[in-house]
């Protein structure tokens, strides 16, 4: 275990009124390193207190943190220079068009403000790392090349991956390293919070299932290949294998994305070898003992009816991966079911963990 510096960081949340933004706000409460200093949103909310701007739209199970209630919401697009001067970095979770997000995040970066993004807009920018800290922490080294392109010394953009791949890619990763992967079929069953909804705001989802989520299948098939890519000549070069196909369904669950995974290996392991790897695997987040990192990354359940979203999504603060029902398949080597909490591990919590990694590795420093 490495010894971390215990510096303190001033943090802004851009897009603070949306569901993921609200989750970021809650995660700043009592964080040992990060202190919420700025909340920003669209011009409709700017000038109001955060409590006034949210009104009756607070979507979290826990109360709004007292430290956030009286913060005056700033304009995310018009107050970039002011916000950048007030914080050490920002989380970005805005609901805007892709080209607008690209411009906004780069504007913050060029104002020497590091951006830890929950948005998809920059995931395919070649010199922007898309990081799951337990899997590809080394990709953050591309930030040096990105800073040269942007002409910055502090500013950069780093992103987290799509929330749906956070369930099955972590379960596949240690197996890929040990045995190689030839092909993967992943069927994801995604909670309504992944659409920024609750049952109160989306009553049509009660007792319903939607078999199509626009853009999700493409993300689920392509993003793992960037996560498994390599850093080369100042960009991330996407991996060319394994072959991945997916189907993504929206299900009537409040939180928690589940995936049914079928996998063929280059060198077929035994069930015991797979379970042993899951139990022992530790990534860079565990090596550094980051505050948000789960002590055990992957938990396997022997019970035939596990994992379940209601029972297992909060495991280790919602930051661990739950796996069960490992068994041979007639068309693939093995199949299993896995689960992650989509707004914690998959979204805001994953963003906080990424920010912790960037701070621990010296890419984000407090302003003088």
UniProtKB/TrEMBL annotation:
GO terms of molecular function: aspartate-semialdehyde dehydrogenase activity; NAD binding; NADP binding; protein dimerization activity
Q: Which SMART domains match?
A: Semialdhyde_dh
Say which domain of life the source belongs to. Answer: Bacteria
The reply to whether Transferase figures as a keyword in the UniProt entry is no
Q: Does the keyword Oxidoreductase apply?
A: yes
Q: What is its EC number?
A: 1.2.1.11
The record's listing under Pfam families reads: Semialdhyde_dh, Semialdhyde_dhC
> Where in the sequence is the active site?
163, 257
* Domain Semialdehyde dehydrogenase NAD-binding: residue ranges: 10-143
Keyword annotations: NADP, Oxidoreductase
Question: Which Gene Ontology BP terms does the record give?
Answer: methionine biosynthetic process; threonine biosynthetic process
Checking PANTHER family in the record gives: ASPARTATE-SEMIALDEHYDE DEHYDROGENASE
Q: Which family does it belong to?
A: Belongs to the aspartate-semialdehyde dehydrogenase family.
This protein's name: Aspartate-semialdehyde dehydrogenase
Give the organism the record lists: Pseudoflavonifractor capillosus ATCC 29799
Gene name of the record: asd
